[in-house]
Each structure stands twice: as C-alpha cells, then as structure tokens.
Amino acid sequence: MSRPALTYLRVSITSRCNLRCVYCQPAAESAGRDVLSRDELARFVELAVQCGVRKVRLTGGEPLVRADVVELVRELAGIRDLHDLGLTTNATRLPALARPLRAAGLRRINIGLPAVDPEVYRRVTRVGEVGDALAGLRAALDAGFEPVKVNVVVMRGLNDGQVAPLAELTRREPVEVRFVEYMPFVDACEGRGRYLVPADEVLARVRALGEVEPLAGERGPASAQRYRIRGFEGVVGIIAPHSAPFCAACNRVRLTADGAVRACLIDGGEQDVLPLMRAGLDRRAMERILAEAAARKPERHAGTFRGDMRRIGG
C-alpha cells in the first residue's frame, strides 16, 4: 500500500505540565522533565526539514512551561523550507507569552480547552482554573494568531455536557472549536471505552445551537470535518480517529520528550534516537530514521495506548 510522505513533525519539548488532565496524566502526581536541549531540538527539526518535513507543531506536556520556548520558536522559525510552525497549549500561560511567541515567528496556536464551566474544567484538569485558559484564548486572538483552534477531547460523563457551550465560542469569535473523539489511553484514565462520545452524537449536540452548514472546499482524510452554525463567526470541527480512522492518509511522525521517534500516536513502536542525537545526528541518519518510521506505520491503529501521553504529545 502506498503511504504518504512524512511531512508533519510533532515535537514534545517537555513532559512537564502545570495541569494534570485525566485523559493525559495518571492520577499519581509526577513532575515530568525536560530531556532535550534547545540546540538538540533545533538540530533535529532542521534535519527533518532537510528530509522533507514542512510542518512542525510543538507540544508537551505543556510547552509553555519551558523557560526557553520563545527562543526555541525563534530558532525554528528561521529554518529554511519550514512552511508551518505551530504550538499546542493549554493557554494558561498565553497572556504573557502570546505576543512574544507571535513576534518570534510562531504561526498557529491550538488551545486544549476541555470546558468553559469552572467546575467541569477543574474536574477534567484536576488543578486548573478556566479563567486562566480563557484569558489565554483572548490573548492569542489579540496577538493576531490565525487560525486559533480550540481542541476539545470529549469524554462521556466528564465534559460531554460542554459541547454546546464550547461551540458557542464560535458565535462572535473567529475561532475553530474542534471536538475530538476520545481515544482510550488506558494508563491515564480508567474505564476506557465508556468515555467515548461518537462524532455523530457530538454533531447532534452542536445542532442544538442552530442550523449547521457543512463547509465546502478541499478536505484531506486526516483533517476535521468542518461546519458553521448559521450566523456564527467561527467554525466547528469534528475529528473522529475512533469511528473514522485516517491512518492510510497519516503523514505525521513524532519526537517524544525523551528523544524517541514514534511512528504513530497509538501503534508502531518507538525508536530511541537520543544516543544518535548526542553523537552527532546527520542528514543520512535522519533519512534512515524517517524511512524506518514510515515503514512502522500501521494500516489501522488498534485503538488503545498504554503509556504516558504527555511525553508523546498530541
């Protein structure tokens, strides 16, 4: 079967986080850590771009807990032939960092926001305050990021009642709120399949706000199905990795926070490249790493993952 080229690299720059979301971290508190230096991260991305990667997204943990995140963004933004540099964040530190990140060359912001209700937000994040995240969302919009996307992992019994209130964010703001089917990361959250809210059920809840119009235009198999609620400014997206896997079209590869290349978020195993990075990674080695990652990609993921989500990134 023909596979798409690996052109999209997600880089977990830390396993530390200031929240402890139930779908990402185990209940037992663990500090996480930074393993890779800024120079190591920049070198890896530069070589990956030389080998065909064109889009990079920084993830975590929470990437904004790294003290050097603005400097890292500035270095990466200067890499020739890197066409798209984005970052996924819980937004709680964006009020102070949105404008510096924008000035450094960051192009896109994705914000993980599980709820707008304070009680629900605290239940999902265990320690967070929704006001901090909403202030970060406002800061991203004011800094001129476009698009600003809000990612919502929908979990039955935890935050599924927040679908309509979160979609309501698109009424007056030019944001894209994307509802993502929960995947059962079994070490992070017990109960697994009972949390799944299928994409068609999510869409039904969005329809409660008004007439929903599918957006015409080009759409790849691995992207969100996008809709606009009539009269609303922004867009609603639905991503269904469980009920409609897009493995055959996946062009992603991941670098974990501790220096492993992961071919697939769920399956495909990992290759520890930290020794290579510290011994002097070159283009030939990178070509081999990416080729091996492409070969490990499954035709379809198994649907469950056992491990620490925050070291892999979303």
The share of residues in extended strands comes to 15-25%
Computed structural class: alpha/beta
The profile of the biggest β sheet is: 12 strands, mixed
Assembly level? single chain
The dominant shape is globular
Helix amount, in percent?
25-40%
Number of domains: 1
Task: Just give the CATH class.
Answer: Alpha Beta
Radius of gyration: 19 Å
CATH architecture: Alpha-Beta Barrel
Indicate the mean pLDDT: 88
Number of strands: 12
Summarize the structure.
The protein has 314 residues and is α/β, with parallel strands linked by helices.
Write up this protein.
Helices cover 29% and strands 18% of the residues. It is of the alpha/beta class. The protein has a single domain, classed as TIM Barrel, CATH 3.20.20.70. Strand 8 and strand 9 form a beta hairpin. Helix 1 packs parallel to helix 2, helix 1 crosses helix 9 and helix 2 runs parallel beside helix 3.
